[in-house]
Design goal:
The structure holds three protein chains of three kinds. Helix content of chain A is 35%, strand content 23%. By secondary structure, chain A is an alpha/beta fold. Chain A has a single domain, classed as 3-Layer(aba) Sandwich (Rossmann fold). Chain A is globular, with a radius of gyration of 19 Å. In chain B, β1 and β2 form a beta hairpin. By secondary structure, chain B is an all-alpha fold. Chain B has a two-stranded antiparallel sheet. By secondary structure, chain C is mainly α. Chain C contains 18 helices and six strands. The chains are: A alpha/beta, B mainly alpha, C mainly alpha. Chains in contact: A-B, A-C, B-C. At the B-C interface, α1, α3, α4, α5 and α7 of B face α1, α10, α11, α12 and α13 of C.
Amino acid sequence: MNNIPTSEFAVRRPPAVSVKTPRNPAQAGNGNQLMADSFSVYYGPFEAVKKVSCAFPVGEVTALIGPSGCGKSTFLRAINRMNDLIPSCHVKGLLYFGGKRIYGPKLDVTVLRRRIGMVFQKPNPFPKSIYDNVAYGPRLHASCSRRDLDERVETSLRKAALWDEVKDRLQANALGLSGGQQQRLCLARALAVNPEVLLMDEPTSALDPKATAAIEDLIDALRGAYTIIIVTHNMQQAARVSDLTAFLYEGSLIEVGATSQLFTNPKEKRTEDYITGRFG
Amino acid sequence: MVDMGNRNHAPADDLILSARANFRRKAGAWLGQGILFAITSVAALAVLFIFYFIARDSIPFFASRGFAEFFTDTAWYPSREPGHFGALPIFVGSGLVTLGAVFLAVPLGVAAAVCLSDVLPFSVRQVVKPIIEILAAIPSVAYGFFALVVFAPLLQDAGNKVLMTAWWILAGPTLLLLVMVLGDLSTTWVKNEKHVRAARITATLLIGCVAAYVLVAGARFMGAITIITGTNALNVSVILGIMALPTVVSVSEDALQAAGRELREGSYALGATRAETLCRTILPAASSGILAAAMLGIMRALGETMVVWMASGNAAQIPEPFFNYLMPIRTLTATIAGDMGEADHVTGSDRYHVLFAMGLCLLAFSFICNLIAEWFVARQRRKLGGE
Amino acid sequence: MMRLQTRKLLDRAFAGVGVFAIVLMALALIAILLPIFQRGAGAYVFRATVEHRRQMLDLFERGDEDVLVKEMQKALEARQPVLEALASYRADQSERLNEAIGAADRLAQRDDLLGRRIARAVEQLRHTADLRQQIDRLSRIEQLMRPQSTPDMTDDLDLIRDITSELEVQAAQYGELTERLRQLLGPLPGDEPRILPRFRYGQARWDRALIKQSQLLYIEEWDYSDASAMGRRVLSPRRDLFADTALYPLFEHIENDLEAMLRPRWTFYGRFLTDHSVDAHFFGGIGPEALGTFYLTLGAMLFAVPLGIIAAIYFAEYAKPGRTVSFLRSCVSTLAGVPSIVFGLFGLAFFIYTIRVSPGKSVLAGSLTLGLLILPTVIRAAEEAILAVPREYKEAALALGAGRWRTVLTVILPAALPGILTGTVISMGRAAGETAPIIFTAAVSVGVALQPTEVFTQATPALSWNIYNLATEHEAVDEIRHVQYGMVTTLVGIVLLLNIAAIWMRARISRKLRG
């Protein structure tokens, strides 16, 4: 457990954030805050994310919206350094997690990724059994006993509301599940390593409406326990599940605010245009 | 439902590594990758080793005998005292069988590849592919055994019948097609609708008579050839052609596939038939890949040992005339395989080193072929990549 | 411009050429595999004669001795008429010979130097047992006497000359006949025992026995009277030579009762694969060769597979595009194009003469050479399989905090394993079938099965090499065709099984990926 309070960080380096204060900083003391300070991501010479500055309040659900190619997925993947895989990709500016620079030289990427979990657009369970999928993360990070592991798998599956459906066939191949079940399994897999932050990259775009509703219900249930950042194409979804919404356009952060405010009373003209469907 | 206390199970790890841990991790990664790179290099650099050791053992030969005798002389008497190492007939032999194999494998292979990629339905393709794979998998010594024990006696006893059958099968349909196309082309100048039909029939009949004469004369010629022995260049060429087919088919099929659907659709949309689309659009677009396939086919035929050793007759002579495929010949590979047994006992002599000189020639040639093939493949990729 | 009809015709013809090429390929495959498998099966399943069962008992101690003794009894009974015919023919011959000896005795009656010399020679002749030698001596006596003969001797001398020349011809014919008979039925009574097993038994296989039978019954000659054409084979019945002799009925026996003499029975000789060969493959199986191929293939895989997979991991996961990596890649593709015989030369020059992995040819040297040969194939197959693993798996593992190595070991390799296995199995077939690389590094023509500990120092026979060797260099190539075919069938069978397994595995993978 990281005990560095956010206030200490604020003293050391006050970031220029566009949201002045998290909505309820007091309640969010349990986790570590995620902050971007004029953070840019480049693909070669192309600047995909331009000088984004914002903070993601702990324990709340933040939605990233914007038209295709606006850099929201790139930004999301930059948070747990998944972009390291792309050779031409590099970053400028600062990104903090719990006061530590995510792109700092001594940061342990594996620990970072354990603490910032991710759920992908397409359900991507490993071609292993359901049990092995969920146990994959815990096995990596700690040598726990068989009993602990069983318990961890069960808890995670219960959190993902999948336990009742799969408890009789834990050893079955995960690829045999339906798309919605697979995505919930991926969620359970991410939860099994006890992350503080969950990144979701359009988690429902490959699913049917019923499975989408199930995932949305889950996000709702996880609110408060995890800081959740969700990229979505679907503005209704953003409105339904998120506390905060950030609008990105051509790599720049145009506006960020409480979801109810942003959807009903946007401050920026471009936000309004996008929300009312004039482009995008 | 969400159990907050569960988070306490998380190991107490810190995001920031200590300087020592950081160094250890970096060093570990560097070391691991270094080992990986080293092992890969060993695997890859083996080919340089091969070059070095073959060259090293062939230098003594060139040092003591020079180049002229080896490349231009026709007398190959390695076991005489003093030996004579004129390898020209052996080079000619290798060239002959390789050429023969390529003439067989490339047209057939490209035709088969076209058929696989554009003509046959998916289900048939699923059956044909394993046939090609099995053809490629049969060990060369089995091909050699077949050539020696089945095909050579057949050629020797009923060679004329074999040649005649091949002539009928190949020349018959070709000539028939030629007659019909020429009959059509030769009457395009007739504009009058009424006369066109009559003119076409006349032209077709006339040309048909010529073709029939050619066909019969060809068959007579095939029937009159005397075949002294079944272990000859023709036998080997046919078998090597069959062995090179799978390579040619699969590489040129890849090239044809890579040409893309857009190109095909563009051509079909202009009203071209499938043959016209393929001949005028796809084959030119895939030409580099097909040339690469031909080079790989050449390499396969040139480097093959067992078939030529068993079924080529192993006579170190230039056929009379030089394109006479019915004479026994001898190739580089077979010479190496056959002579090493004797030369091995006198390590150090010219007789031993001359075989390495031949190996070096083979190696150099296949290296050049490989370079050319790679260059063709790269060009194909560039061309279709649109750069 | 061509008419539409002609264009369509050309279109059809174009497709036809392609189909023709494919049909031709399929036909070539059938034409090659059919005779090989058909005749190769004959090495395992054939009509074995009683001689085969005798060998099995003598050489491998298989079978029931009592049963065999009874069966042999019956066979010998059936052979009795043949032996009797031979005996009575020999008796007739000695009778004729005695006539000549009688004439010589008469000549010896002369009371002079010549007579005494003849008497001495006749005395010697009586001590000679062999008919051929007796004839020889007689004709020498005759030739010796002829210049010094007086007119009263002419009749006797003429008689001796006639009889000896007649007997000489007959003895030659008889000798050839008995030789054929020995090949068919084994040693005849009274023969001296021979060491090589091939002379101790008759034909073990009914198909070979039928060939030997026809060689016995008919004399093969070549007719070259037509100078412009090739020689023509002419068969004439051998029995015509023996008309009106005691041997004449023998041919009828051989023609009609051969089955009773050899008692052929359909037999499955499964141990052909594991038995050692007896007397240069005249009898027995191909055990040492099969084992040698197994050792060589296994060794090559042990060397090439780990190396190939590591190199593939490097190329697919670690290598950053650059000059070094593209150079390494060209090296691998050049290695793939090196002729197999050059690998053999390299193996000899490097593994044996330079780093001396073994004092001479050995399984180890051969395995290393073969391993090098299949290395590019393994690398390519493994790299393709690794690249075919969906990127999502890798991302998921990384997102869970797995390190790079962990990701490769726990997610990528398991997912790529079936693909890697497929490539491995195919290259295994290649290693098993290659001949040229092992000629100078591992293969010997005749050898015994190696113990696993001997592979580091000893050369071994191997299927691929021995197919070549038996088909071209064996002293009796035609006599052991069934062994050659059996070897080819075994080798091709192994390779095809491996490839079919690979094809099947790949089909399963693609089915799985498609869901």
